[in-house]
Each structure stands twice: as C-alpha cells, then as structure tokens.
Amino acid sequence: MKTKTVKAYGTESAKTPLHPLDIQRRSLLPNDVEIDILYCGICHSDLHSIHNDWGGTTYPIVPGHEIVGRITKIGTEVTKFKVGNLAGVGCIVGSCGHCEHCHEGEEQYCDEGWTVVFNAPDKILGGQTYGGFSQAIVADANYVLKLPATIDLAASAPILCAGITVYSPLKHWNAGPGKKVGIVGIGGLGHMAIKIAKAMGAHVTVFTTSPAKMETAKELGADVAVLSTDAGQMATQSKFDLILDTVSARHDVNMYLNILKVDGSIVLVGLPNEPLEVGVFNVVNGRKSFSGSNIGGIAEAQEVIDFCAEHGITAQIELIRINQINEAFRRLEKNDVKYRFVIDMKSEGM
Ligand code: NAP
Ligand code: ZN
To answer: Which residues neighbour 314 within 8 Å (Cβ) at sequence distance 6 or greater?
Structure first.
C-alpha cells in the first residue's frame, strides 16, 4: 500500500525525551479521510504509555488521542464529511463492527478488540498505529467525529478523551437532578467531569488533594469542594449516589466507598499502574458497587461533543508549542497543570 511520510513527535524509550520523527500514513481507502491536525490534547494516558506504566508499550511511540483538525482529503465513498470540515479523532480508530457491542455503539468493548489510535497493531498498514502528535492522520470516517464550525477548537480537543471518558459513566450511572455525585481528582478528566455532571443537573462535590485547587473547583461549577487529605472535612461527607474516581496514581478508595449511600457506586476511570485495595466490608456493608468504565463509543463521543456545544462547555487549557512538549509532560507528572495541556500543532518545531 502507498504511504505518505508525515512529521510526528514520539520516542524510542521511556527515558528518551519526545523528539521529531517521521511516520507513515496510509493512502486513503474508500471510506477514509485525511485530517490536517491543528490541536492535540495531552492526557495522562499518554504519559502512562510513554513510561510503559501498564506494560505493552511498543516503541517508537507517538502518543496523542485528543485530535482536532480540518479534513484535507476524502475517500471515494465518504459522505459524512467534505473537504474543509472540522473533525476530531479520539481513542478509537477501528473495531470489528459486527459484535453485539459494536452494534450497540460501544466499540470500546468490541469482542475482537478495538484499535487504539496509538500504540496498537495497525490492522491495515501493519506495524502499529501512531497518534495525534503529528501533522496529519488518516482514519476511517466511521470513527471520525463531527465538530461544530463555531467551536473553540483548541479548548474542545480534550472532549475527545477527557470529555467522553467522564460523560459515558455519568450518563450510564444516571447522574442528574436529585443525584449526589462526587468527583475525585481535579485534573484533565476531573475538571471536565465537574462541568458535565453539573450540566446534567447533579449536585457535584469534588475531592482534591491540592489546596490550591479548592477555589477554582467552585469556579468550575462544583457545589462543594473537599480537601481529601483533611480527615475533618472528609468526616462531613456522606450518602453519595455515585463517585467518579479520576485519580492517576495509587490511593485509598475505601474512604470513598465509605461515603456512598446504600446501593451507591464508585466508578474508576483513573488507571493507576498499581493495584488498589478494597476492604471487603466496605462494599458488602451497604451493597455498594465498585466498578469501572473505559472511554465511550463513537456515537456517545458525538453526543458529548454536541452536549458540550449546547451547554457552552470547553476544557480549561494551557496552550503550548510542540517544542514545549517535554516540559509539559514533566509538569503533568508533577500534577502542575490547570487543567489540560493542548498542543498547537502548527507551532514552531513542528
Ligand atoms: P491528570 O490531569 O494528571 O489528573 C489526575 C488527578 O489525580 C490529579 O490532577 C490529582 O488531582 C489526582 N492525583 C494525582 N496523583 C494523586 C495521588 N497520588 N493521590 C490522590 N490524587 C492524585 O490526569 P487525567 O488526564 O485526568 O487522567 C486521569 C487518569 O485517568 C489517568 O490514570 C489516565 O490514564 C486515566 N484515563 C482513563 C481513561 C479511561 O477510559 N478509563 C481515559 C482517559 C484517562 P488533585 O490535585 O485534585 O488531587
Ligand atoms: Zn486520554
């Protein structure tokens, strides 16, 4: 198959800084589109993957899965997009298309395994997939999202992962009027969860380990902000219907199980690289559920983009140049970002 060389930022090892390298993009298949990438968000999953935190990283790796840009070419059978349209690509770029989960629009639970936009076996070109820290991407239009023409493009990129990852469980567990929802961690995912849960009509309490984030939590829309390291503040909390845990590192989940109401659920979306301990009595007592959720399907990703447009929700971002990417990862590792880095892919160094 013919390919095209494009410039990207990636690395050959966990310890090597990201740097420019050349990758190949396939020629367009009939249902493919080519996107000129304008902005790409930086998610903590990119950092976990670069560090091989979960095992399974194949180097060289080109991360990036909050991709927004403009369509520059369409395949012969594409009807969903026209050249010049804005478009987004999140985590999913392929799935079997015929299992029960694909039929239900939950490609992230595809029986045959879905194709992640980066660091997954590339079923079409061979080798592996390369993500959005690159000039352009070619993807099947079925996995490409439509973006409203009036959208704040850079600040909307994080909806493609952070947004959908919190929207999907909030909806599945019925966050809405009359529901008491807790969000643990105010990072990229957590700050979007505050905004989205609030827009769904829930009462939102946020739990943070960072005193400096207490004030901004309210500005983001939280009804209550709790410093989770303060036992006195934690002791005043109770009867949550749902707690969404976005924490990226090992932490105590039992203190959150203990403040759920009877039949309440804690849902993990954060992916620490070490096991979490659950005290059995903390789930048995009160018939609590300890569960998890993985991103969201394509139809639901389109739904959250439209939901955010309707409710005026964007991410709070720090826009960086591509040549600041290693500094951004260092700061993300130190929990020093409010609340999402987004790379200007047309900046100096690309
Ligand atoms: P992030 O911006 O770094 O936010 C993580 C937040 O967790 C931090 O802002 C911090 O909030 C809190 N935190 C960090 N270390 C902590 C510790 N040791 N103890 C307690 N709290 C701590 O990361 P993100 O991009 O939002 O991603 C969060 C996690 O979700 C990552 O593990 C990522 O891989 C995962 N993820 C999962 C999915 C999925 O589909 N399930 C999708 C995307 C990302 P405070 O400062 O407020 O305490
Ligand atoms: Zn992500």
So the answer is: 152, 155, 156, 159, 308
- How would residue 196 be classed by pLDDT, with cut points 50, 70 and 90? very high
CATH architecture of the domain with range 162-292: 3-Layer(aba) Sandwich (3.40)
pLDDT on residue 313:
98
Tell me the pTM: 0.98
Q: Is the CB of 108 under 6 A from ligand 1?
A: no
Query: What is the average pLDDT across 144-159?
Result: 97
- Extract the tokens encoding 250: 């090992």
Q: What separation in Å is there between the alpha carbon of 190 and the centre of ligand 1?
A: 7
Q: Is 188 close to ligand 1, i.e. is its CB under 6 Å away?
A: yes
Query: What are the tens digits of pLDDT across the range 11-23?
Result: 999 999 999 999 9
Only one residue has tokens 């804690």, namely 266
Domain boundaries, the chain: 3-161+315-344, 162-292
CATH class of residue range 3-161+315-344: alpha beta
pLDDT digits (tens, 9 = 90+) for 66-101: 999 999 999 999 999 999 999 999 999 999 999 999
Residue with the smallest CA separation from ligand 1 atom 16 is: 249
User: Going by DSSP bridges, is the β-strand pair 86-89/92-94 parallel, antiparallel, or unpaired?
Assistant: unpaired
**Which residue, 93, 86, 181, 177, is CA-closest to 131?**
93
How far, in whole angstroms, is CA 184 from its chain's centroid?
15
Q: What is d(CA 244, CA 6) in angstroms, rounded to the nearest whole number?
A: 38
Å from CA of 258 to ligand 2 middle? 28
pLDDT of residue 286: 98
In this prediction, residues 112-123 reach a mean pLDDT of 97
